[in-house]
Amino acid sequence: MDLLIIDDEATIRKTTTLALEQGGHYVESVADSESAMLRLKEESFDLVFLDLRLGDEDGLEILTQILKKYPRQLVTIFTAHASVETAVKATQAGAFDYLEKPFTPDQLRGILAKAKRALATEGEVVKLQETVRELQTEASQNNPPLDFSSQDKRTAAEFDTLFRAAASPASVLILGESGTGKSVIAREVHHRSHLREKPFVTVSCPSLSRELLESTLFGHVKGSFTGAVKDVWGKVHAAEGGTLFLDEIGELPMEIQPKLLRLLQEREYERVGENKTRPANVRVIAATNRDLAAQVAAGEFREDLYYRLNVISVTVPGLRHRPSDLQRFAESYLLHFSNQIGRKIRGFNDEATQVLMRHAWPGNLRELRNAIERATILARGEYIEATDLPKPADTEALTAGSNGQKGPSVGGEYRIEELEEAHMRRVLEWAPSLQDAAAILGIDKATLYRKRKRFGLT
Ligand SMILES: Nc1ncnc2c1ncn2[C@@H]1O[C@H](COP(=O)(O)OP(=O)(O)OP(=O)(O)O)[C@@H](O)[C@H]1O
Fold first, then answer.
1. Is residue 240 a contact partner of residue 252, using CB atoms and an 8 Å limit?
2. CA 356 – ligand 1 centroid, Å
3. Could you tell me what percentage of the chain is helix, strand and coil, using 3-state DSSP and rounding each to the nearest 5?
4. d(Cα 77, Cα 388) in Å, to the nearest integer?
């Protein structure tokens, strides 16, 4: 623990410091209230020992002054003038405990054990607050039921690896296009792990500036940058004992990468603007829709960090690569949204089913969910019709690559060949086999092979 002794008697400061240091604690001591307030402003201490008679100063007044500024500070009063009256006064003023001089090392240890319990309880409250926040996020999204089964062999194998590894403390890296369900999977890994009762804390890497992200992760001390008006704990602290989920890790700035590596490797970190090293006990799950290996090759992501994160790695296939699951998701979303708005919709008519199956779903489950929610609202009859769904010839869907980049669009200033190549590339991305791709494109397999070679689509 980090302790501060405020006592004007040099011998008491020295002997108490020695006794506490022997117990492995970090101890500082000061002789007056001015130095004490200065240190409390600069540092955070787990427990303060305050002498009730501090030269000319009144310990009770100093106690009030400390608690006014730092209401959660634990303060134990030292006094040579023990009496029920002073004890009552000190506790009424908010003292955590009371120690009569001269005290024994055992009494001191007793106080420390009690303070440790109190701090742990406070830590639990912070963790609970974090959990409530996460649950509120989950609930406010009002999600349809989650489904982690798959008829697609590759997807099923990826999920199997992932969930078998859930119970280990190993870091997990979840790769996959946007909307494939990486955040949802990260939560599920946490729920299936031994840490399920502990906090699950999310940090979205791109949503913050570098400075803010560093302080959000590790916390900061007062004065460490403009606007840092008080000491703040970070998400690493909030996730203590549980899971820290780093979303969009591919966007983690280079400057922060060594700090995350240290957290993973040494299990320690420092708050921004502070030299004190703190232990961290968190399991890290990271996700990205970027090609992290390519980022490593391009020198944009540290290789050592990549390997640390990559202990267990899964790639969630895009929805077009698991067509056998599409209908099930569509039906489950339909049931959820029709119940939500109190409508009886029995399913999709044949034409609508065809549209569902032919669309490439570049936005994956998120896009499907939104499309079904919209269709549920628009549906006139008992069945969803093709016109309730996004148009199959939606230019965006036809021309946007899996990385979201646009290609030539229908009606623009493009040669037919360019459109042909873009269309073929997209279909090849999601069609389950070359035979299926040829059937969808309306050409025979030999022509497909020839064109693939010509366009370099291998
Ligand atoms: N296993 C699942 N079962 C049912 N629906 C799912 C599942 N996974 C994801 N979804 C749906 O897809 C939406 C998007 O999921 P999520 O936010 O986890 O994707 P993501 O891959 O993290 O996306 P991004 O990369 O854009 O952050 C969810 O809100 C949910 O509606």
1. no
2. 18
3. 50, 15, 35
4. 72
Q: Specify the ligand 1 atom closest to the Cα of 147.
A: 3
Report yes or no on 121 lying in a domain: no
Q: Is residue 404, in this structure, part of any structural domain at all?
A: yes
CA distances from 118 to 64, 234, 306, 342, 399 (A): 20, 20, 39, 49, 60
Same domain, 146 and 261: yes
Out of 147, 192, 366, give the residue to mutate to test ligand 1, the one with the largest number of ligand atoms within 8 Å of its CB: 366
What mean pLDDT is predicted for residues 182-198? 93
Nearest CA to ligand 1 atom 18: 181
Task: Report residue 402's pLDDT band, with 50, 70 and 90 as the boundaries.
Answer: very low
| Pocket around ligand 1 at a 6 A CB cut-off | 141, 143-144, 146-148, 176, 178-184, 289, 365-366, 369
Q: Which range, 21-25, 49-53, 304-308, has the best average confidence (pLDDT)?
A: 304-308
Last residue of a domain, one of 276, 298, 317: 317
- Residue 221's pLDDT is what? 87
Reference 364, options 118, 185, 153, 104; nearest CA is 185
**Structural domain total, the chain:** 4
The residue-averaged pLDDT of 7-22 equals: 92
In a domain, 254, yes or no: yes
Q: What is the mean pLDDT of residues 356-370?
A: 91
CA nearest neighbour of 89 among 132, 60, 116:
60
CA atoms within 13 A on the CB side of 344: 0
pLDDT number for residue 411: 65
For a mutational test of ligand 1's pocket, the pick from 155, 163, 184, i.e. the residue with the most ligand atoms closer than 8 A to its C-beta, is: 184
Give the model's pLDDT for residue 307. Answer: 95
Same domain, 32 and 150: no
> In testing the pocket of ligand 1, which one of 191, 247, 365, 374 has its CB within 8 Å of the most ligand atoms?
365
ipTM for the whole complex: 0.98
For 51, the domain range is: 2-114
pLDDT for res 404: 45
Q: Is residue 135 part of a domain?
A: no
Residue nearest to atom 5 of ligand 1 (CA): 146
- pLDDT tens digits along 136-172: 666 655 779 999 999 999 999 999 999 999 989 899 9
Question: Ligand 1 center to residue 182 CA distance, Å?
Answer: 6
